Every structure is written in structure tokens, then in C-alpha cells.
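Progress narrative, work stream C.
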Amino acid sequence: MNSEHQYVQLSDGHFIPRLGFGTYKLEEVPNSKTIEATKIAIEAGFCHIDCAYVYQVEEEVGLAIRSKIADGTVKREDILTSKLWSTFHHPNLVQSCLERSLKKLRFDYVDLYLIHFPIAMKPGEELYPKDENGTVICDSLDLCATWQVMEKCKDAGLAKSINRRQLKMILHKPGLKYKPVCNQVECHVYLNQRKLPDFCKSKDIVLVAYGALGTQQYKEWVNQSSPVLLDDPVLGALAKKHKQSPALIALRYLQRGVVVLAQSVKENEIKENIQVFDFELTEEDMKVLDGLNRNLCYVVMQSMSDHPNYPFADEY
């Protein structure tokens, strides 16, 4: 993973690997599996680890990374991402969320810190505060104020790079000190985002794609009647043509200029995913994949659709 073409330079001068390892943990998977999977990923060649406060596995991820630093497999200078959770959007709470993450990770800083979700939730220890009807309790906050504290976290050396959604709002923020360096969104062959990559490129912002292999396993937030992405016959045909798996074809779609996150706790899948740079799709292949777009968003969180910062109805 050290060749030049496998990294993308961010607008603040730092570099991010084009393939990252996601650490979102399914409820039925024990935390110990996260340690094992993260170690396997690093040993296989991943040096971009994507984590988050809400995943509740930062302690395990930090342990895995530190063990691989200790044995010389990876350097601390490689990319570690974490994210500000929605119950900490209030300016007085932003830095405390980052400090909690750093304490669990047992690191002095993260390389990239993101605002995980643009909708603020009621502050408190509950990850998803709900009312008596089971509805998530949202909060109304000026996200530009949240961003301002994110800037202070960067100045304090707690994060090298920072990011958030609602790009236009932030880019026009009065007194903006640091613009977002990347934008992490759901992006795959069924949701190729069409206009967003061009917009991001015009603003020198790197697009980071999550859900590149489909996200049906996130049962709480995903419509389970959605089609299984990796079962698509077009992916299957291209996989046969290139003698690769459908998953690798879906990941290789990154060659359109985006950074992609891949997630698995299975050793064979982790090791296979890192092989995405061993082949390249033709221009015609890419056009075929472009044709699969159906503007299908797997993660919709429909219960929050009335919030003014609801992100999933935006064209880009």
C-alpha cells in the first residue's frame, strides 16, 4: 500500500490512502473480533482505519493498532479516523467527545476527525436518546458553531485534518479558518452520487465512500427489501471477465477518483479486499458500472427526515 497512486493528497497537505478499513461492529459480533479483524487488516496492508465514537470499539481498534505499531507492521503516521457523534454537537461538548475517543484509543491525536452525522441529538450518555414513543430526540444547533470548535481541535493538535457534511454551508461560513478536506458519504454502484464527486473536486475536497459493498446488515437503519448489491448480475459478469469477485469489482469502482472504505470481519474477505489495486477496469467497464446507478440509498434513517439537516434527500 505504499505506491504513490494509492494515496490521495488532501487540501491541507496530508495524504489519505485510497482504500480504508471500516470498523463498524454488528451487534452480534463480539468486540474481541474487532481486535482480530483490525490486526488482520493491518497485516494485509490496510493503513487507513476508519473508526467512530458511536461504534463503541475504539478501545479495541486502538489496541490492535498499537500492537501492529509495536511489531513494526505499521507506523503511527498512517491514517486513523474517528468521528464526532451527534449527542456532542453543542460547542461546549465537541472537544470532550474527541478527548473521550483519544482516551479509548490511547493516542494523542487522530489523523482525521469527522462530524459523523449532520443531525444533532439531545446531549447525554445515550447514543440514541429516544422519547416515550421510541423516536430519536433531535436537537437544533448551528452546525457552523460545531465546526468552529472542530477548528480549535485541529489547532490544539488533537486532529490533523477535519471534515463535515453540509459543505456549502461550511464553505460560506463567515470567518472560516479550515475548509473540509473530505466528505464521507454513502456511495456505490447503485448510488454513484453523480454530481457530488465533481462538486467536491471543484472545491479541492476528497470524496470518501462508505457502503461500497452494500449495507443490508445495518438492520436498524436500512430498508431490508433493498436489493443485494453484490448479487447484481452485471457485477457478476464483470467479475467473471476480470477473474475477480463481485466485491472487488464494486471496490475497484474507486478508480473514478474516490477513497473507498471496505469492511469485513472475515479474514479471507479482508485479504481479498486489499487486492483491489491488482487490476484495473476499462473505460467501457466503468461506463457499464455507471449505468447501474439507481439513486438507491441503503441508509436512510427515515424517522429523522423532517429535520432541516436531514442529509439523504439532497441531490448532492
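Work stream C, second folded protein:
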Amino acid sequence: MKIAIGSDHAGYELKKTVYSWLERNGYKVNDMGTYSDDSVDYPDYARKVAEAVANGEYDQGVLLCGSGVGVSIVANKVKGIRAALAFNPEIASLARQHNNANVLCFPARYSDSETIEKSLENWFAAEFEGGRHQRRVAKIEP
């Protein structure tokens, strides 16, 4: 599975840890920036990841910023993206099971690597339940 990952400066350090975890667990990962903790604008990186997932170049995306909210908003502006803000493993599972999220966003200033790793495990292991959830997800796209 191919994963696109990105962050702003606030998520940079934690993104490096997440990148390593993804690689260790057999995922092919492309870091789409940023590449330092110098101040940057989160929409630039969130859009790159979201567009790469939406156009099928990558299967899933992972984004980090200080609160996780900014990257989530930007990613959800891209047609075909269902980005979810995950702050614990249970939410990550539900993001896949109920919303078929294809981008998972994390609040770097309020997360630790252990929580993110368990959240990613849950997200990748979960399956979209379809049924009533499919009907609801279908209403998201214009």
C-alpha cells in the first residue's frame, strides 16, 4: 500500500516518527513535505497529499499539523477526499468503518507517537462497513 504523508512545521518532528513506523510496517511512503521545522503554510502540504490520494497516485494519506484541524479542512476541499481528524485509536477505526476516510489527520501538539501508531494500526486494520454508512458517504460528494 502506498501512503502519502505531509505536515507543517508543527507536525514535522512527529511526522518523521510516523514515516519510520509506516516503513517498518511495510508501507511504501512518500514524504511530501515539509522537510524542517521552519515555519510554513499547512495548506500547501495538505493539498499536495490530498490531491495525490484523490488522483490515485497513493492509496491513503496521513497529515499532521499543530491541531490537525487545518490540514483536515484543506484536505476535505479536494474532491474525493474524506479526511478525518483522529485523536485516538477508536476514532481512527470509526473513520474507516463509518466514513471510509482516505486521509487521516493528527494534532501534533496534542498527540504522541504511541497514540498515533495505534491509531494507524486501527485505521489500516478496519474495513468500511458499507450499508447505511455507504448511503451517508454517498451524500458527501456533490
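The chain has six helices and five strands. No further action is required on this item.
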